[in-house]
Design brief:
CATH topology of the largest domain: Glutaredoxin
Number of domains: 2
Strand order of the largest sheet: 5-4-6-7
Low-confidence stretches: 1-9, 11-17, 20-26
Oligomer: single chain
Structural class: alpha+beta
Distance between the termini: 36 Å
CATH architecture of the largest domain: 3-Layer(aba) Sandwich
Helix content: 25-40%
Mean pLDDT: 81
Number of helices: 3
Number of strands: 7
Radius of gyration: 21 Å
CATH superfamily of the largest domain: Glutaredoxin
Protein backbone atom coordinates (compact mmCIF):
# COMPACT_ATOMS: atom_id res chain seq x y z
CA UNK A 1 0.00 0.00 0.00
CA UNK A 2 1.26 3.50 -0.73
CA UNK A 3 0.38 6.83 0.83
CA UNK A 4 0.61 9.93 -1.33
CA UNK A 5 -0.08 13.46 -0.14
CA UNK A 6 -1.41 15.84 -2.76
CA UNK A 7 0.71 18.71 -1.48
CA UNK A 8 -0.88 20.68 1.32
CA UNK A 9 -2.60 20.16 4.64
CA UNK A 10 -6.03 20.85 3.11
CA UNK A 11 -5.54 18.29 0.34
CA UNK A 12 -6.88 14.78 0.83
CA UNK A 13 -4.54 11.87 1.33
CA UNK A 14 -4.76 9.25 -1.38
CA UNK A 15 -4.29 5.68 -0.28
CA UNK A 16 -3.89 3.23 -3.08
CA UNK A 17 -3.46 -0.42 -3.52
CA UNK A 18 -3.28 -2.02 -6.95
CA UNK A 19 -6.72 -1.55 -8.48
CA UNK A 20 -8.16 0.11 -5.35
CA UNK A 21 -7.56 3.90 -5.04
CA UNK A 22 -9.65 5.91 -2.60
CA UNK A 23 -9.62 9.30 -0.90
CA UNK A 24 -9.40 9.95 2.82
CA UNK A 25 -10.47 13.37 4.08
CA UNK A 26 -11.80 14.62 0.75
CA UNK A 27 -14.53 17.27 1.00
CA UNK A 28 -18.02 16.04 0.09
CA UNK A 29 -18.13 18.27 -2.99
CA UNK A 30 -15.13 16.38 -4.33
CA UNK A 31 -16.86 13.02 -4.11
CA UNK A 32 -16.01 11.36 -7.42
CA UNK A 33 -19.34 9.55 -7.72
CA UNK A 34 -21.75 12.30 -6.61
CA UNK A 35 -24.74 12.46 -8.92
CA UNK A 36 -27.50 15.05 -9.15
CA UNK A 37 -30.88 14.15 -7.70
CA UNK A 38 -33.64 14.09 -10.34
CA UNK A 39 -36.32 16.79 -9.79
CA UNK A 40 -38.96 14.10 -9.19
CA UNK A 41 -36.95 12.80 -6.20
CA UNK A 42 -37.02 16.18 -4.43
CA UNK A 43 -39.93 17.29 -2.25
CA UNK A 44 -41.28 20.86 -2.11
CA UNK A 45 -43.49 22.22 0.65
CA UNK A 46 -45.14 25.62 0.58
CA UNK A 47 -45.98 27.08 3.99
CA UNK A 48 -48.86 29.55 3.76
CA UNK A 49 -51.74 31.08 5.68
CA UNK A 50 -55.32 32.01 4.80
CA UNK A 51 -55.91 35.38 3.09
CA UNK A 52 -52.25 35.85 2.15
CA UNK A 53 -51.80 37.48 -1.25
CA UNK A 54 -48.09 36.59 -1.48
CA UNK A 55 -49.01 33.00 -0.66
CA UNK A 56 -51.40 32.86 -3.62
CA UNK A 57 -48.68 34.21 -5.94
CA UNK A 58 -46.14 31.70 -4.58
CA UNK A 59 -48.68 28.85 -4.90
CA UNK A 60 -49.20 29.65 -8.57
CA UNK A 61 -45.45 29.83 -9.30
CA UNK A 62 -44.62 26.68 -7.34
CA UNK A 63 -47.45 24.75 -8.96
CA UNK A 64 -46.24 25.75 -12.43
CA UNK A 65 -42.55 24.98 -11.78
CA UNK A 66 -43.20 21.70 -9.96
CA UNK A 67 -45.63 20.64 -12.69
CA UNK A 68 -43.09 21.32 -15.44
CA UNK A 69 -40.34 19.39 -13.63
CA UNK A 70 -42.47 16.60 -12.19
CA UNK A 71 -41.54 17.53 -8.62
CA UNK A 72 -44.08 16.60 -5.94
CA UNK A 73 -45.20 19.39 -3.64
CA UNK A 74 -47.67 20.06 -0.90
CA UNK A 75 -49.00 23.04 1.02
CA UNK A 76 -49.32 23.48 4.78
CA UNK A 77 -51.05 26.21 6.76
CA UNK A 78 -48.67 27.64 9.38
CA UNK A 79 -51.57 28.72 11.55
CA UNK A 80 -52.86 25.15 11.81
CA UNK A 81 -49.67 23.93 13.51
CA UNK A 82 -48.25 25.86 16.48
CA UNK A 83 -44.66 24.79 15.86
CA UNK A 84 -44.82 25.96 12.23
CA UNK A 85 -46.41 29.26 13.29
CA UNK A 86 -43.65 29.83 15.85
CA UNK A 87 -40.87 29.10 13.35
CA UNK A 88 -42.21 30.55 10.08
CA UNK A 89 -45.27 32.66 10.92
CA UNK A 90 -43.58 36.03 10.38
CA UNK A 91 -42.28 35.32 6.89
CA UNK A 92 -44.88 33.37 4.90
CA UNK A 93 -44.94 32.13 2.25
CA UNK A 94 -41.96 29.88 2.93
CA UNK A 95 -40.61 27.36 0.43
CA UNK A 96 -39.08 24.19 1.89
CA UNK A 97 -36.96 21.99 -0.34
CA UNK A 98 -36.51 18.49 1.03
CA UNK A 99 -37.55 19.75 4.47
CA UNK A 100 -35.06 22.62 4.57
CA UNK A 101 -35.88 26.30 4.14
CA UNK A 102 -35.11 27.39 0.59
CA UNK A 103 -36.68 30.84 0.57
CA UNK A 104 -39.51 33.03 1.77
CA UNK A 105 -41.86 35.82 0.65
CA UNK A 106 -41.42 34.94 -3.02
CA UNK A 107 -40.41 32.08 -5.29
CA UNK A 108 -37.04 32.83 -6.85
CA UNK A 109 -37.64 30.78 -9.97
CA UNK A 110 -34.09 30.57 -11.37
CA UNK A 111 -32.65 29.68 -7.97
CA UNK A 112 -35.33 27.07 -7.32
CA UNK A 113 -34.87 25.45 -10.73
CA UNK A 114 -31.12 25.30 -10.15
CA UNK A 115 -31.60 23.69 -6.73
CA UNK A 116 -34.02 21.13 -8.18
CA UNK A 117 -31.47 20.22 -10.86
CA UNK A 118 -28.81 19.24 -8.31
Amino acid sequence: MSVISAGGPADPVVLSQPGLPFLVGAPAWRAPYARPVPPADHRLTLLTRVDCHLCAVAREALSRIAGELGTPWDERDVDAEPELRAEYGDRVPVILLDGREHGYWEVEEARLRKALAT
